[in-house]
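Quick one from the shared queue. A colleague (R.T.) flagged ABC transporter ATP-binding protein as missing a structural entry in our internal table.

Convert sequence to C-alpha cells.
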Amino acid sequence: MSSVPTLQVRNLRTEFATRAGTLRAVNDVSFTLERGRILGLVGESGSGKSVTGFSIMGLVDAPGRVTGGEVLFQGRDITKIKPRELRQLQGNRIAMIFQDPMMTLNPVLRVDTQMIEAVRAHTSASKAQARERARETLAMMGIASPDERLQAYPHQLSGGMRQRVAIATAMLHRPDLIIADEPTTALDVTIQAQILSEVQKLARQQGTALIWITHDLSVVAGLADEVAVMYAGRIVEQGGVDAVLDSPLHPYTAGLIGSLPANNRRGSRLQQIPGMTPNMLQLPPGCAFAARCTRATAACQAQPEQTEPLPGRLVRCFHPALTASAPSTLGATAPQGLEARV
Ligand SMILES: Nc1ncnc2c1ncn2[C@@H]1O[C@H](COP(=O)(O)OP(=O)(O)OP(=O)(O)O)[C@@H](O)[C@H]1O
C-alpha cells in the first residue's frame, strides 16, 4: 500500500468565460484526501462545489476551463495527462455519482448486465462470480430481494432503489476515488440516512476515498471524516468534521450550523445568515463574506489568506473564533458565543 494520498488538490482554479466577464467558480482550492477517507464538501448553491468536482474529474467543458493549480491523483497531476489516459482513469479508478442516477446507469441494460460488467472491468471473475458479487453489493446497500432487482431495468425501480443501484455499480468498479454530487438530496430523509450509512461501510471496506458534495451539513455530520466549507469559490474552512462542527472557526460555518433546524429550539425562528450570496461576477477584492458577517472589520477589505490557527484546522478569516468555543453538536444547541464574541 502506498503512502501517497489518493488525492491532493493544490491551488485549483476554474473559470468560465461569460458575456458579462470572467467568472471564477473555483478559486485557489486546496485539500488532501487519504485512502478510505470521506470528505464532505459543503456550501450554499453556487459556491463552486460541483465545478470543483468536475474540475477534479477533468470534466469541465467550454466556456469553462481549469486555469490553474494541480490535481494529483495518487501523486500524478491528472490535469496534464493525455485525454485518452484521462478517460481510462475516469471510467475505472475515479468515478462520479450524480443526483440523477440515470447519469450513471444505462437505461437500456438490465441491472445485472451493468453490474456484472462493472465487476469484470477490473477482475478476471467469471460471469457467475461477478453476479454473486453484484448480488452481495446490492444486499450491502440495503436492497431486499437483490435477485429480483438484478433482473430489472433501471426504470422499473423506485427512485431510492435506482440511486442505491447506481452507487453500488460505481462501487463495484472498486475505484480509488468517488466524487458524489448530491446523490441523496432528492430522496426522503430516512432513505438518505440508510444510503449514507451503507456508502460509508462500503467505502471503508474498499479503501475508497470519497468526496461527498452537499449543501446539507447534517449529511456531512453523519457521513464524513473531514469537511471543507466553500463560499464564493473558495474553501473558507476545513478540518476534522467533529472539530469543525463543534467549534467552527469561520463565521460562515457558524452561520450554516446555526441555520440547521436541529440547532433551533422548538417554536423559535430558524437563524438565517443575513444578506444574500454574492454575485460571482462582482466579487469584492477582500473577503467575499464580509458584507454578511457580524465580525467584519476594516481588515476584511483585504483577502484573508488561509491560516492554521489550531492544528489541522484551516481557515480563511481575519477574525476566526478562537476564544469561546461554540459547543454545538448537531441535534443539540446552536453555536453560542458568536454574538458574545462580536
Ligand atoms: N457552464 C457555466 N457557465 C457559466 N457559469 C457557470 C457554469 N457552470 C457553473 N457556473 C457558475 O459557477 C459557479 C459555481 O457553480 P456550482 O454549480 O459549482 O455551484 P454549487 O455550489 O455546486 O451549487 P449547486 O448546489 O446549486 O449545484 C456558479 O456561480 C455558477 O453560476
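Residues 189-206 form the longest helix (18 residues).
The chain has eleven helices and twelve strands.
Added to the table.
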